[in-house]
Amino acid sequence: MREGYSILLELSDADPFFDKKKRLLNDMGFDVKEIVHIKSSLDRDSLSTTLNQMLQIARIIHLDEVELYFGQIGGLGFYSPRKEMEAQNFILSLIKSALSHHVRMQTHALQDLRDALINRIHELGTEFKVENKTDINYKCDKEKCLLQWAENNGAKTRLQIAFVEGAGRGAIAMEDMEVGDIAMEIPASITISEDLVYKSDMYQVLEKIDGMSSETMSLLWCMKERHNCNSQFKMYFDTLPENFNTGLSFGVEAIMALDGTLLFEEIMQAKEHLRVQYDELFPALSKDHPDIFPPELYTWEQFLWACELWYSNSMKIMFADGNLKTCLIPVAGFLNHSLHPHIVHYGKIDSTTNSLKFRLSRPCSAGEQCCLSYGNFSGSHLITFYGFLPQGDNPYDVIPLDFEVDQVDTMVECPLSNWTTHMVRGTWLSENQNIFYYGLPSPLLDCLRSARSQMPFTKTLIKANMEVDKEILEDLQSTFNAMMENLSDMDSVDRESSSWDVKLASQFKEMQRRIVSSILTSCSTGIKLVEHELSKCKAEE
């Protein structure tokens, strides 16, 4: 009988990228159901080896489409800080579960493994810690009233609200908190969801409309309830801004400044969709039911305000009865987004306490802004629906490529060659800084190589393959040169006097130019490298 403990790490067969992840696991010598055996006693080297093995598997299990496509971030050994934290916390949960099942046994090895993992979480948090400054002159009277109201209704928090420079209102830790600590707990009874609509007089009207979603009903309920002086949620509505300043509220100048960018298309499509949705409902509802839908409360401007409220503040919450609902969570809306969040998993009501708990996945120091992750969103999505660009290099700022190639799956050596869509991002995030991939995503180059050459492309740089590479790089260079021309420079914009939306449009364009510029640099460097190798081949002939 083997001494020690066993921990199972399993890739779900329901994972949408099961086949790709399975190949990655198999290439590293792992199965989709990998049992890691832990000796009852571990020396320092064995402990490190075991932990690294478990993290390798956990990283792959938690990958999303973008991370699978681009691979690990160069020099870091993992895919993104957020995903590394997810993998670490996943392993930590398995270790804690194993400890709970071996309470009567000597568990020194598991405890040592847990402590070593927590140290790594600390190190990761320290490496990517963001310093924030708060504005001591900002008065948070309304926010303090909301906190008091929430606490009177059963909420618990170790955070206070302050104005954070560059981020607006945010949640600041009042004390040092560790991994696993609960920063905030909100009872389900003070969440705003579709359940409130079902109890209102408007539900009998809205339920008869074909295609009426629960989210739209909740949005329409808020448009009226925000003006109700006797509302249970008056304190909450009083803290909401008159303007959310998301991309949906961009003015003409900002929109025109975005011409030629992905963000321009995203904002225009979103606004068009919302306008069509509004016109399908109003003024008809106000004419037919003026007592329920007063026309002065259901204007286009107020509809857009409510849309921005729900886009920027709502959360998907799984309730104890198994129903997934889109909700507004008073107080929790002050938690800002970060690429390196403290809180990642927060979308499930605890059935024991009937509350939503915001548990830390990494430490948060007193005075530090406590952040969560809104999701794996690009900068264009965050601007459109939330009204900001995150600090740092966002691994989800990708540029999709629209082209058709045949024989995508003819590659022999590339395990991830069966991609039907392709994309690029800033090459400073790429691990492939070598002569085979020139800092560009390997699935893209493998696909283009496969389409242009009948022979399997090997890492032996023979002349024919180098000529194919040169053609590919020149074509990509031409494509991105044209893209750069569309991203006209905005140096002439006066940042100080510009409106908030023009400033944000300018920031987005700068980010896009930086991505395209890095790709052009990689193409240019790659062409020079290939030309050098071709000249050497010619000299040897």
Topology:
Blueprint: E1 5-10, H1 18-27, E2 33-38, H2 44-61, H3 65-70, H4 81-101, H5 108-127, H6 141-152, E3 156-157, E4 159-164, E5 168-173, E6 182-187, H7 194-198, H8 203-206, H9 214-225, H10 234-239, H11 252-257, H12 262-281, H13 284-288, H14 300-313, E7 314-318, E8 324-328, E9 349-350, E10 355-359, H15 379-385, E11 399-401, E12 422-424, H16 442-452, H17 463-486, H18 500-540
Report on the architecture of this protein.
The chain is 45% helix and 10% strand. The chain has 541 residues and is α+β, with helices and mostly antiparallel strands. It folds into 3 domains: 4-128, Rubisco LSMT, substrate-binding domain (set domain protein methyltransferase, domain 2), CATH 3.90.1420; 142-243 and 303-386, set domain protein methyltransferase, domain 1 (Alpha-Beta Complex); 398-540, no CATH class. Helix 2 (44-61) crosses helix 4 (81-101), helix 4 packs antiparallel against helix 5 (108-127) and helix 17 packs antiparallel against helix 18. The protein starts with a strand and ends with a helix. It comes from Gossypium darwinii (Darwin's cotton). Keywords: Methyltransferase, S-adenosyl-L-methionine, Transferase.
